[in-house]
Design goal:
Length: about 350
Amino acid sequence: MPPISPIFPGPASLLVLGIETSCDETGIALYHTDRGLIGQALHSQVDLHAVYGGVVPEMASRDHVRRIIPLIRNALTEANANLSDLSAIAYTAGPGLAGALLVGASVASAMAMGLGVPAIPIHHLEGHLLSPMLSATPPTFPFVALLVSGGHTQLMRVTQIGTYELLGETLDDAAGEAFDKAAQMLGFGYPGGPALSALASGGTPGQFTLPRPMMKSANLDFSFAGLKTAVLTRIGDRTLSASEKADLAAEFEQAVVEILVGKSRAALAKTGIRDLVVAGGVGANRPLRKALDQAGTEGRFNVHYPTLELCTDNGAMIAYTGARRLAQGLPFRNALAFEVRPRWDLASITT
């Protein structure tokens, strides 16, 4: 049984099924507005795609088809719930891989039509930025969100559910993409980010010199392509020793951490907000969390994270976001008119 999550007041008790199929994880969860997160199931496709060095969209879609119904059954069993208990079904409508998104959207809409309940399309990044609400110490509105998920690195001002203002974003590679590409240069396969972080833990920053792109820019945008290229330049035609690889990985990770922390502090100073939410896969990085916690102590602001298991893609964040939207009467489409949006600007979402 997952830990009981913080609840929120609503007009009535609601039970929402969440479905996440934006890329290479099939995530299912059940969120109850009185009892919190009561059931979840997740299947990762990492092993499936590792052979090819990255996600193969067609294979991802087919695997979602194979996994989604058994995972829904598993989550319902864990929650001791029936389909007839559901108040709504929330699903990731974008951004993501079109074929993968269609699997979740079609299953969610078909189930919703059959059960006579709403189908609620959810923005993938909205799910991530609200995922710390499922922690033991959730943030309060307004807050600044640092989204470091997959191909996204953004700073958002979050005023309330459905009201998001883009403060800054990456102009090229996202932080997670830079991690994976730098790891590939150091000889790691897919996904390389966690392997690079493990290698960096045994290295010493400063043995190599890497840039901190846009750290002193007047805006809140990011750039990681130059940092990635600098890693390639430092390697050159050399064959690095094991200790040199660890040192280069440590310097790279330190550079990314300094950039993310520096821009986050600048966003808080610009907005005057004292709460920072960190969400997405890179948000699980321990050196980043340590640096942000230290910055929070020095700058007297609060930092909120999702639990480690909710940093990567998952159904819990989709179920929770769907429940919040349903409870607050926010608009959603009819189940028969579902669509997916592989590209979708988070700031375009309105209440």
